[in-house]
Amino acid sequence: MTTQQLTAQIIKKKSFLCIGLDVDLNKIPEHLLQTEDPIFEFNKAIIDATHHLCVAYKPNTAFYEAYGLKGWKALEKTINYLNTNHPDIFTIADAKRGDIGNTSTMYAKAFFEDLAFDSVTVAPYMGKDSVEPFLAFKDKHTIMLALTSNQGAFDFQTKTVEGKELYKHVLETSKSWENSENLMYVVGATKAEYFTDIRKISPNSFLLVPGVGAQGGNLQDVCKYGISDNVGLLINSSRGIIYASNNNDFAEAAAAKAKELQQQMEVILNSK
Amino acid sequence: MTTQQLTAQIIKKKSFLCIGLDVDLNKIPEHLLQTEDPIFEFNKAIIDATHHLCVAYKPNTAFYEAYGLKGWKALEKTINYLNTNHPDIFTIADAKRGDIGNTSTMYAKAFFEDLAFDSVTVAPYMGKDSVEPFLAFKDKHTIMLALTSNQGAFDFQTKTVEGKELYKHVLETSKSWENSENLMYVVGATKAEYFTDIRKISPNSFLLVPGVGAQGGNLQDVCKYGISDNVGLLINSSRGIIYASNNNDFAEAAAAKAKELQQQMEVILNSK
């Protein structure tokens, strides 16, 4: 999927919502635990109830790896279900990978070829040659951590390097990498005021924004400073949507929460 | 395994060699491709031929994830084979993970509980609360990236932050984290002269050192500057050992290469 197609989906659905599929077996309705593949059944129900309200789904690989082979199988089934039934939806493997060149190529194959995700999140610490192998997949997108939504973001990301914060240095440096047009960035919603500076460096890149909802970020503030000509935002909510209820009505409750966010987004898009 | 037990193994085996199990199906002997699980069969043959010459094995998860479910299954079989047959060998999941707190906990469960590795590598970019969930597993070890062996290390890791290089800032900062006694660090062999400064910050931490062999690092130089009272080094070689031959004699060839390194290490340990 190209970024133009992604923007077209956003306009069509009046939504730039991404739903995080972070399935914790301790938090899902008990009756699902009796099924053969509770993780996939949970995801399928959430997707069936919410696909018209969002433009992207983002399974975080940690929640699948924690369940070993069964988890990996559920991840495969989830992405296959999305690609088969909702090919217009943008898919993100939230994996935060990054390694030396030949190893990053293997990760890129895992997520872009074997699992056929549209995009994967990567970490910048190992620099250019750890990210370029992902960028080499020209019909895919690489979403690099810039400024994350957790408290630990202040440990290193906001420290001053060569006169600017490290996350800005990361953003600027990455612009010179080969196929950098395939880059998007993770920018946490908990620091909305930072979006002004980020848009100076990267006016139109898509930004994946976690931290709305459970982590306390505010949608209106993020959009005020972060929205671009092509919208350029994917606002993620995970726990706030998928665990809206842990009873039999979990999917309907998730849809209601997603609808709330979609309607706020519609207002923002209409006033743009 | 405690670090004291690891040092005891090093003294006993006269080796601080770690062998990287980075299995690429394009590089292994053709006859193995006919078996049901070529990745595991390759690893088993390498382990059987080299276990007396090394103190650690390090599968890089990228090489397993690239093969999907089959790859994850091969990783499970490999770690089970090691834990069953060679419980004295230190095992490293080279995964370079890192995410917000509740997600890092899921990764820690994946590698420490589900797969039962002794240690896992993590990336520092997201700071304290992305690493502490790993450190909370008190009988396990968390190996954090400090200075990596690739060219991209110079993009961010060696930039100056608050008067010192970022990798030194990462090392120093991590010393204050909860359960930091469970930390080890990745330090690339290609920059042996940096070990002097690193040992000033972290005199006795174990350092996992990639970059000897295929990436051009020199064993003697690393030991000259990096060896500590408790040895404190795990020198990793992956491609240089496991792909020493791609014929039927691949395991013997790997053992011969491992033996070469072990003998150099024996000389170093004897002169210590």
UniProtKB/TrEMBL annotation, chains A, B:
It catalyses: orotidine 5'-phosphate + H(+) = UMP + CO2. The keyword GTP-binding does not apply. Pathway: Pyrimidine metabolism; UMP biosynthesis via de novo pathway; UMP from orotate: step 2/2. It comes from the Bacteria. InterPro entries: Aldolase_TIM, OMPdecase_type-2, OMPdeCOase_dom, RibuloseP-bd_barrel. GO terms for molecular function: orotidine-5'-phosphate decarboxylase activity. Its EC number is 4.1.1.23. Keywords: Decarboxylase, Lyase, Pyrimidine biosynthesis. Signal peptide: none annotated. Residues 16-254 form the Orotidine 5'-phosphate decarboxylase domain. The keyword Lyase applies. The active site is at 96 (proton donor). Pfam families: OMPdecase. Coiled coil: none annotated. HAMAP family: OMPdecase_type2. Belongs to the OMP decarboxylase family. Type 2 subfamily. This is Orotidine 5'-phosphate decarboxylase. It comes from Olleya sediminilitoris. The lineage of its organism: Bacteria, Pseudomonadati, Bacteroidota, Flavobacteriia, Flavobacteriales. The gene is pyrF.
